[in-house]
Specification:
This protein is α/β, with parallel strands linked by helices. 28% of the residues lie in helices and 22% in strands. The strands form three sheets. Strands 5-4-6-3-7 form a five-stranded parallel β-sheet, with helices on both faces. It binds S-adenosyl-L-homocysteine.
């Protein structure tokens, strides 16, 4: 933990404010939980969890990982749910700040990496504005786990000189992306939160000039026991996506030709089921 330069802090951990001793202030740890497999948690994330007084977590974080926190630690799920109250981002921000100001060690546990489509930046800003100490522990983002389990490198000499992570989700339907640059060949595009907008995204990429025959891969639940991979092409992406659900990445690029095969029958069966 970073050393405080506060001269009013005493050796016993108490901070003297206005002459009145108070409990040492807590801190917020923005921790990446990785893509799901607990073995993909970093040692630093594990240590932060083991010191937590309270764990504020997303829906994507598994019980196996949450169980690494001390038994007495309070667990608060701020997952988006249809049936129960959903926390707005500013409620989450205020909750983190309030717990830390109460002297608690707060772990904000997020799927993948906190700074990749995780709104970790907003939580960090809220802590800074409130003068609350905040530390960030990176995590393995879903794209890295998906490439690894499919055996498909996101960059590859000769066929993928760059990789771009984009969001497929926008408040009002399709995202506003730089389609021309995404359509360049020898470039891997990883689309987070893009399952429902896959047909529109594929159409945009092709309209901007990306070949419909470009290899594409959909990975659902990367690194989890229920992982599912579907290898297709940019032209087939929309249809393949329509048969799938769950947290998924769409990956488009020449290097996806290296992705492990074997899901063709599975997707055919799924498509039959979806149209039956
Ligand atoms: N911070 C996270 C991303 C949060 S946005 C990270 O770094 O991975 C949520 C989206 O991430 C999901 O809609 C999905 O597109 C993707 N995602 C998260 N975990 C995933 C997983 N295990 N497999 C596939 N996609 C995943």
């Amino acid at each position: 933990m970073a050393q405080s330069r506060d001269r009013s802090k005493r050796a016993d951990g108490l901070v003297v404010l206005g002459g009145k001793p108070r409990v040492r202030p807590g801190a917020v740890w923005l921790v990446g939980a990785g893509p799901g497999d607990p073995e993909l948690l970093t040692i630093k994330a594990l240590k932060a969890l083991q010191r937590a007084d309270v764990v504020v977590h997303d829906g994507l974080v598994s019980d196996e990982i949450l169980d690494l926190a001390p038994e007495g630690a309070r667990r608060i799920s701020v997952a988006k749910r249809k049936s129960r109250h959903t926390y707005a981002q500013d409620e989450i921000n205020r909750m983190l700040v309030a717990f830390a100001q109460d002297g608690l060690n707060v772990v904000r546990l997020k799927g993948g990496d906190p700074f990749i489509f995780g709104r970790g930046g907003e939580e960090l800003e809220a802590c800074r504005e409130a003068g609350v100490e905040c530390h960030v522990v990176p995590g393995v983002t879903a794209a890295l786990a998906a490439g690894a389990s499919a055996g498909a490198p996101l960059t590859h000499r000769g066929s993928a000189q760059a990789v771009t992570f984009v969001t497929g989700h926008a408040a009002h339907g399709e995202p506003d992306l730089d389609w021309e640059s995404l359509a360049r060949s020898n470039h891997t595009v990883v689309i987070y939160m893009g399952l429902s907008t896959a047909p529109a995204i594929a159409a945009r990429l092709m309209a901007a000039g990306r070949d419909g025959a470009t290899p594409a891969l959909i990975v659902v639940n990367a690194s989890r026991a229920d992982e599912r991979r579907v290898k297709t092409t940019l032209g087939g992406l929309g249809e393949a996506a329509s048969a799938l659900s769950g947290p998924a990445l769409l990956i488009v690029g020449e290097a996806m030709a290296l992705a492990a095969e074997g899901e063709a029958e599975a997707v055919e069966a799924l498509l039959k089921g979806a149209t039956a």
